[in-house]
Amino acid sequence: MKKKITLKQIAKELDVSISTVSKALKDSVEISEDTKQKIQAFAKLYNYRPNNIALSLQNQKTKTIGVIIPEIVHHFFSKVIRGIELVANKRGYNVIIGLSNESFDKEVINMQMLANGSIDGFILSISKETLQQQDYHHFKETINQGMPIVMFDRVVNEINCDKVIINDSKGSKNAVSKLLYNGCKNVAIITTKDYVSVGKLRTQGYLEALEDFGITPDSNLILKVDDELVSEDHLESLENEIKGLFKNNSNIDGVFAVNELYAIIAMKVARNLGMNIPEDIQFIGFTDGVLSKHATPSLTTVSQHGQEMGEKAAELLIDNLEREDEEDYFRTVVIETNLVERESTK
Amino acid sequence: MKKKITLKQIAKELDVSISTVSKALKDSVEISEDTKQKIQAFAKLYNYRPNNIALSLQNQKTKTIGVIIPEIVHHFFSKVIRGIELVANKRGYNVIIGLSNESFDKEVINMQMLANGSIDGFILSISKETLQQQDYHHFKETINQGMPIVMFDRVVNEINCDKVIINDSKGSKNAVSKLLYNGCKNVAIITTKDYVSVGKLRTQGYLEALEDFGITPDSNLILKVDDELVSEDHLESLENEIKGLFKNNSNIDGVFAVNELYAIIAMKVARNLGMNIPEDIQFIGFTDGVLSKHATPSLTTVSQHGQEMGEKAAELLIDNLEREDEEDYFRTVVIETNLVERESTK
DNA sequence: ATTAGCAACGAAAACGTTTTCGTGTTGACA
DNA sequence: TGTCAACACGAAAACGTTTTCGTTGCTAAT
User: Fold this and answer.
1) Which nucleotide C1' is nearest A21 CA?
2) Over the stretch A204-239, which tens digit does the pLDDT of each residue have?
């Protein structure tokens, strides 16, 4: 086992100074051709690579990006990461991942772990607990120390930083309009509690669409699911809520759900109740996951373009990091959604 | 914007030496109570945190783990990462992610980027291209330089390192046995080309189960899909292959697929051909993804326990990193699979 | 024969820590 | 009064780089 070789060892071995070795490896004009060749050959032989940590300390930059997301076992978030990784790598950056697991404390701890020199900047999506508690001091402090942040998807106005979002209300308005245009008279929405910003916005889009079509919203058709209950395993409660929705409102002929899973489960319930999709009832979900594509019938969804969001976020951050002038101005990029039509709608 | 404060600045401000500050913050007995209090108070006020990079350079360890996986938009891999992150964080480590995107070159580049001091050890799953080319020199070199590697899922005997795998042949043998036990007489398998080690092993388990039941394998019932063709978008070719399989062998009454997607698509094709699941034909897949759980009918699968694999891999690596004695011995941990029975089997 | 100038290289600081090994001051004790 | 611990603190090396600023020794020009 031969440990990694350093400049010092090369210098000693070849009986020159460390500076000479460093310069020779950078092809500096200060060093004679002979010496350069000798040193370069030796370095190649021993497979020399500069130590990244030493470089980071020297340059005061690490060339790595910290990403903090609420959950990784999630199609949307992993697509975002793929996007981030893609452009980060292309521009010579590494990506280090922290999971908040939707917890405020873990979000704070993760940020502290990374903010002490390990990374040059953050890309993150806020955890539900943080959104609920509305405690954003850790973001403010981080930014205050000169570390840039880019937020995506779940953002908050209170913080001044770059943001990448989708037009949630517009996306859902389009979706609901599609249902109405297709002839649905009673469109229900399955959404989350209001503290989840995207849930709130998507509900808003639903209402706007109804208004455009001159329909008065019926509160019985708005199901706000408590997200706490939908923890991987007890989905039965969700199923029951949806079943209740259908039974109490037998006139429902269209459903818009603010995520993929809700839509899939709703379709299942509907089918069990003997309804035909899309003849009797039509469905649209949100997010472009695997479920939508491979369900039967496949689900029409509002595509969120996760990878594109990740790419854009990484570009914003790196641009910011590599910008010369110190004045900071913040941009908000809106990624357009589009409706992917599949079998669950006419 | 106040930049992060350093020991030097504190020392200057309080008119003591750097060493004194350092010791005071570690509550060293060398420093008087008065001075300690003064320094600690000042440090707290300015929110001092030691610079991670400097610590890494000093200690020659970074407390971060490098993870290289072929693909992140994949339920299994993201579960593994979740497992890794869980125990890594618990034990004070960070996780830095590299995606090989199933490419040999990207795997090599990623390893080089990280192996130069950025991390203490690797956890990885080999890319398909690497498996195909059977070029493992980058692994050997890394290990040779004293950087430990833990491989999971896609491993290779040729390399001497810790490994976390599942018993692929046993898992698939169990699954196929279940089908046979349930009365299936003609069980087909949908698998990958043989260079994917797990595909090969799972095919082997299929054959073993047949043998146990005294059935001679029928090569017409073994469909080896070329993985290149199944790239997210042109799944039609896969569908057609499967359709061919069913049409040419109308007696098929059981299907074992080496992954979730193949099984789901096969079910879809079968249903379109008018077969009833599970009455006419039963299905079992491999991996525990979202599709299996939420498909209709839901799919019986061999559960791979991705998160557990990740946890175990991280434990192996960190144990290795923190072990005192230098002699290296390598362990291979086998995670047990189990059959999750759902609606696609009787 | 000076000296300016150049080519080739080395010394040292700097990045932010930790840690070892001084060193100076105080107090107690003989 | 002189000696020696004990105490409290500082200087400096080390981790591996890069870069600035010398410092040589030589050639060529005056």
Assistant:
1) C9
2) 999 999 999 999 999 999 999 887 656 655 678 889
